[in-house]
Amino acid sequence: MNVEDIDHLEFYVEDVGQAAQQLCDGFGFVICGEGGPRTGLADAHSLLLRQRGIAIVVTSALSDSHPAADYVRQHGDGLAVIAVRVADVLGAFAQAAARGGQTVVRPTFLGSGRGQVVLASVLGFGDVTHRLVQRETMSGPFLPGVIDEVTDSVPDGLLDTVDHIAVCVPPGELIPTVHRYQTVFGFSETFEERILVGAQAMDSKVVQNPLGTVTLTLLEPDTTRDPGQIDEFIASHGGAGVQHVAFRTGDITAAVAEISARGVPFLSTPPSYYDVLTDRLGELDVPVSALRELSVLADRDRWGVMLQIFTRSRHPRRTLFYELIERRGARSFGSNNIKALYEAVERQRAAEQALRA
């Protein structure tokens, strides 16, 4: 299966208007379309949000017949569909089935002619599916007969594209999940990391499509150590699921400043992190004082530098959150910063537990 890129993400939510407003008010997305009974989507209400190369659909079920109803009951709001573009949905769907993939929705044809879109779905991890999307033209309608678009132009903004998606899986499922992506979807394992923080530990593996345009970071807790945030996510979410979505930006300091001003809270970083940053990484193009002020993390690999920061989770279950990342040549995922993130989330958990005590 030749997966080309992420086409869009679909979140299943309890309140579609509220979820869309949070993404628009906080991150600068713009509502560009709507679907519901009026447009042919009988059992759900959807809004299409866009910003540069990112397309997001937020969907609330209007009846129990739509999968969003059961998803929200089990997990709360979350990322339920990772849609990927392929050149031939019929071939990719047949190939996935032949390789042992669990098919979910058979190929469906929307629209006609140059505006035709073909869809099918295959299970990814947990109950998150991969929607296979074939577009006759990228300038055509998004989902003809499902989403009624109010504009065909893509809004500008500070966020460029989806860099990667981080997934938590229950103990014992990391290696089988990697194997599934290798055999069913044709991905490769490109990175692995074991993170130790105090008495806690987790294992991480990264899988990517051959073009490197679709990246999943898979996280599994080590149950031989003390339980930590990955264990808590799995318990709170109710199984495997998306922990965070990373949006790539070309100017992280501008993006963080604007998104913070819009009311989105970010995880803080201890001042000591910045005291040794230059010694660890050498000189950076961004002043360390600017990174310190915004709590932006930095790391370097053999290809270049990356800058990244994570939002606090505002999910009622403290599960889903977001990341902003700027890549200045770097291709990896900030090995040192994975530990910094883990420690920052642990501080947030400890503070919230103290408030509940």
Summarize the entry for a quick read.
By secondary structure, the chain is an alpha+beta fold. It has ten helices and 17 strands.
Tell me the major beta sheet.
9 strands, mixed
Measured as a percent range, the helix fraction is 25-40%
Strand segment count: 17
- The pLDDT mean sits at 93
Number of domains: 2
Low-confidence runs: none
Order of helices and strands: EHEEEHEHEEEEEHEEEHEHHHHEEEH
Task: Walk me through this protein's architecture.
The protein has helices spanning 16-27, 67-75, 89-98, 174-183, 229-237, 252-261, 271-275, 277-281, 288-294, 335-356, and strands spanning 3-12, 30-35, 44-51, 54-61, 78-86, 103-110, 117-125, 128-135, 148-149, 159-168, 188-197, 200-208, 215-221, 241-249, 297-301, 304-310, 321-328. By secondary structure, the chain is of the alpha+beta class. It has two domains: 3-149, 2,3-Dihydroxybiphenyl 1,2-Dioxygenase, domain 1, CATH 3.10.180.10; 159-356, Roll (2,3-Dihydroxybiphenyl 1,2-Dioxygenase, domain 1). The strands form two sheets. It has a nine-stranded mixed sheet. An eight-stranded mixed sheet has the order 11-12-13-10-14-17-16-15, with helices on both faces. Strand 3 and strand 4 (54-61) form a beta hairpin. It starts with a strand and ends with a helix. The mean pLDDT is 93.
